[in-house]
Design goal:
The protein folds into 2 domains: 1-29; 31-175, Metal Binding Protein, Guanine Nucleotide Exchange Factor, Chain A, CATH 2.170.150. Helix content is 23%, strand content 25%. The chain has 3 helices and 11 strands; from the N terminus they run H-E-E-H-H-E-E-E-E-E-E-E-E-E. The chain has helices spanning 2-28, 54-60, 63-69, and strands spanning 38-40, 46-48, 89-93, 99-102, 106-107, 115-116, 125-130, 137-142, 148-153, 163-166, 171-175. The protein is globular and about 35 Å long. Residues 93, 95-96, 98, 142, 144-145, 147 line the site of zinc ion.
């Protein structure tokens, strides 16, 4: 009896520890990153933010997009559809459609992820300090829906010196000759 109790205690302390760890990670990257109802972008357009439950996102997004956009995952390098993609147009958020990057700002970083030296509008993205995985990084999320897009590093090319390292599954693409916008 005593032994069973002891094992039970051991097991529960293990799971308690696991919970603590995952809570710690969540504190670094708060779930609700977009907390205002709208914002005005550089063009002067009012962008209404989007708040959906995780269940709603799960229904709308395919499994890989959900894992990256909502659970801050990372696609494997060199596997994304936009890594070597070179068409002219605008990259949008794969969750909400907000315009994020112009193909004019795309460059070949050699990292295996689509990389840009600047966003299409600095208000369309949010920067969040990310301390996960023992690294200090700056996470980039969509300002409209809070979806995780990737990270930004200060080793990019001219003119900005920035490298926005994005996940292809977080992005969608609108060709320059397309008729839809935003
Ligand atoms: Zn979005």
């Amino acid at each position: 009896m005593y032994r069973i109790l002891l094992i039970g205690l051991l097991l529960s302390s293990f799971s308690f520890e696991a919970c603590l760890q995952s809570n710690g990670a969540q504190n670094d990257t708060p779930e609700l990153v977009v907390d205002q109802a709208s914002f005005v972008d550089e063009k002067g357009d009012t962008i209404h933010t989007i708040q959906k439950s995780e269940d709603e996102w799960k229904q709308e997004l395919d499994a890989q997009s959900y894992q990256v956009l909502r659970e801050k995952g990372t696609e494997r390098a060199f596997t994304g559809k936009f890594n070597k993609f070179k068409q002219a147009g605008v990259y949008t958020c794969n969750a909400c459609g907000l315009s994020l990057f112009s193909s004019d700002a795309k460059f070949n970083s050699g990292t295996g992820w689509p990389s840009f030296f600047q966003p299409i509008d600095t208000t369309h993205i949010l920067e969040i300090t990310d301390s996960s995985h023992g690294m200090k990084r700056v996470e980039i999320v969509c300002h409209r829906c809070g979806g995780h897009l990737g990270h930004v590093f200060e080793d990019g090319p001219k003119p900005t010196g920035m490298r926005y390292c994005m996940n292809s599954v977080s992005l969608d693409f609108e060709p320059a000759d397309g008729t839809t916008e935003d």
